[in-house]
Fold each of these.
Amino acid sequence: MFNLFSENTKIAFGSIKSQLLRTILTVCIIGLGVWALVGILAAVAVLESNITGNFAVMGANTFSISRYDSSDKVGRQNNSDTRVNAIISYPQAKEFQDKYNFPGAATSLSFTAASNAEVKFNGTKTDPEITIVGTDHNYLPNSGLETTSGRNFNSFDISNNSFVCIVGADIEKGILKDVNPIGQVLSIRGAKFKVIGVLKGRGSTFGNRQDLNIYVPIQVARSLFTAPNIDYAVKVSILNRDMLDGGVDEAIITMRRVRKLNPLEKENFGIERSDELLESLRSQTYTLNVAAWVIGIITVFGSSIALMNIMLVSVTERTREIGVRKSLGAKKSTIAMQFFTETLIVSIFGGILGTVLGLLTGFAVSMAFGSDFPMPWMALTAAFGTIAVVTLFSGSYPAVKAAALDPVEALRYE
């Protein structure tokens, strides 16, 4: 059996060599189909890991209060009559923080002070792409942010309006790369800030490069970066996850009082729970996975038809060769295995090409998002399964047709 397979492999490689251009085109067609399947699945795996990972670190016991919730955002795009909610001003955010006394709750306030700030260090300037965020000492733990060196803000920093800051990972790799960042002084809008902490890298999500953020005490940010209609964000962490529902209900009641809503008025603010948001994101990435499979299968099906057509052409061209082999005693199974082996070899080459290109596509997507590249085992499994399906689908009929040829008629073929 092994000798027969070895002989068929040699014959297959001889046939491939004699029709090298056609074989290369066939391999490219199969590779394109596998690339579409593996590449899309790998890209979706990176996207899922990046998005869900960023939200998962926040934990399942947090929620945020903002101007709108997700459904309102969709409604505003499709319905011009939707009410426009007022911003959450600093007095309102602060009042909520003071009045919300749910057991085990930690409330943080924050706002984006500047989106395109320039930061200086010892005469070196950054590109104007730094985001300055005003926060308090509860913001980092509530947002799932961790320091790799230094420390978080404390209540003294916030209450005394200390000119200190915490920088993102890319700031350390940029203007602070040749020094110990802790204790260095950065210049922002002419004000001097002492670096007290460096955050763990988070990568980017939909172009939001969190590692380029610099965090400063909220009152200091308010004094340096003044702008009309600043919208503040409120994040709440509940110590006991089992009490999250009660914490959300209490937050709604408290915020309604802050916004001075009567009992008949609908909430003019939104609450997003991290557990519900994470579940929603997982549902959306599941939909992307299904779409990836559908697109990939359609592409692979087209590749299989192309390979079958080429193998049928090969059978027709080698009809006389088949007749000679049969007249010399070759069995039908031997002839069938010859063409099936050739199909398998071409499929393997195409599968390898497509898998490599697919993994490179996934790696490129991870580089674009600035995140790690998770090995897409599902994509690799799909690649091997694709090779098997393409071989069986495309090789069976040509092999059976070749084996069924009448040797006398085949010898007459010109």
Note: The chain has two domains: 2-55+280-412, 86-268.
Amino acid sequence: MSRDLDVEITVGGGQIVGTLALPNDASALVLFAHGGGSSRLSPRNQFVAEVLRQGTFGTLLLDLLTPEEQRDDEAAARLHFDIGLLAGRVVAATDWLVAERLLPSPQLGYFGASTGAAAALVAAAKRPATVGAIVARGGRPDLAAGVLDDVRAPTLFIVGEHDEDALVRNEAARHALAARHKDLRIIADASHLFEEPGALDDVADLAREWFENFLMLGTEAQPGAP
């Protein structure tokens, strides 16, 4: 059983909306930061979120833009590259979760995709005590290059084998990241959207394992972690 709630979070530009799911046995919560013009309805992130919930994680799938901003972005494709704006929304949602006492544990995780991965990294640098682990799927961490040496949360980068530009960007980000625990995992035969059979299953399994190791158990319990 779980509590499924549609939530609204007040931000400077109005309100952003999200879908919060909290299994009764949730041990931790993961916030999903979408990118590239996507939304909380992204089938790929919904699939990963469902796998995490089966592993007793709560999830918050969040639209980082207000409805008005989303309409503007569909026309101009500009706001989903405004990492400062998107990161501010992730921070606002993080602070809201803390204020509403909705976190099952002291720290939460971030799952970021595309430009949402950059927003998650910037937000993690701003809330180091609250963010316990990060997973970036096909992300643009290069857009957060200025804060990578401030990110302490264990971070996993997941990239498709055939997504050559992302491979270069994510490998460079892994080297630049200040976090002690960091890794880059490559999904064989996968492209940027992980549409190949089994590719998204691999992404979800890697994400669940990373969050279990570093969010539920904590880094101190993982002496052999990368």
Note: The CA atoms of residues 112 and 120 lie 6 Å apart.
